[in-house]
Predict the structure.
Amino acid sequence: MNNPQLNTNGELTHLMSIEGLPQAIITQILDTAASFMEVSARDVKKVPLLRGKSVFNLFFENSTRTRTTFEIAAKRLSADVINLDINKSSASKGETLLDTIDNLCAMHANLFVVRHASSGAPYLIAEHLQRIGRDDVHVVNAGDGRHAHPTQGLLDMYTIRHYKKGFTQLRVAIVGDILHSRVARSDIHALTTLGVPEVRAIGPETLLPKHLDKLGVHVFHDMDEGLKDCDVIIMLRLQNERMTGALLPSAGEYFRHYGLTPQKLALAKADAIVMHPGPMNRGVEIHSAVADGPQAVILPQVTFGIAVRMAVMSIVAGN
Amino acid sequence: MSILSDSLPDAEDQCRQLADLIRPHLHRQPALIGIFSGGAWIAERLKELLGLPEDIGLIDVSFYRDDFAAKGLHPQVKPTVIPFDVEGRHLILVDDVLYTGRTTRAALNELFDYGRPASVSMAVLADRGGRELPIAATYCVWNVALGEGQSLVLGKQDDGQLAWRLENE
């Protein structure tokens, strides 16, 4: 099967999506990230792996956390990082995406970190690089449309492995707007590939995609029922714009049914962890007492995200 | 293909000889740092043989190698663990085989990202020549010449004993 993420030796050369990644590569990324955690704890938080390489952050869509953690990760690998503010750049003057890429390649770019509102934009770039014979230039997807957010999925797996030590005995619930969430899609593929026996999706019918059962996911519309005996709860951000699209009556109504409160959390296992990819809407999908409570691992997720992105960039840049 | 050879020296015996070489210098209160994986095993042995109270350091030089551009990242990187402050300490870097010196160079670069040691010396079981950098072992028990295409590999047997084997590359 043709998998544009892998080279002819089956090694990771771009990261587009967790779908189609062999378990061994996911595990290699998580193991490598564990070694990078140690680097971030030192006085000198840098290793020379990508010294002299140029990493371009191409964010066609807003993001503070993801862009910042990619920037920190690249800098800790000693790469030079260039952040392109796309709104002010050539794209707004009418330059096509691939012309932008050609120009940046002419500036000796080595790695593109791409976030784009259109699903498939990173694939378009990777295919273009292959067509022009630039297999020395790598692409990492930092979120494309509703499709995938693979580094978030990987850092979520790192977090779960860190706290739960494994995957094969777990019950994991993903709660909220799964229909519009690329994070949920990446998480589901990763959890399934890593052998999690029970993945649950909890949300109103209007925010759950059809055919989730074909991915092996158990669907719940009742949150109390869905949270019962879970080991891991992944809360998703409710995007405010969904409220106007008649998908939901109101934020208050949503919180009553699907907001994670201490009472609802008590239905999960006593040692369940609560995750959230951020940014959080307190009082919409999560109660402050939970977000700031002892079971929340939301801030460690951010720290792990740097190590996971260091691992991804150093692995693809070496293949 | 690897062949086990009876004519190779006993690696456990060599660890004891290496400890004997280091023992006269213990007044400097050196700290041991083993390079994964063979050097880490030897450093564990030396800690016991020399009766050192402090945990050893472990170093994986994958993030500092000079062949990253050609070979990429090693698929099984282990976390470096330095459980003491290297600042001002006398360090002994421990490895199984000293060859080109490139691993030692990478380890030195990594160590200096933790601080400025008072000194760094190098203890190895075997020196097979072939240096590509101006690096030498301070303590070494076995100078060995290998045939073309051969390499010397330290392994840990099922009973936990260290043993050499020759491999053809």
User: Anything to note?
Assistant: DSSP finds four helices and eight strands in chain B. The interface with chain A takes residues 60, 62-64, 68-69, 71-73, 75-81, 109-110, 113-115 of chain B (CB under 8 Å).
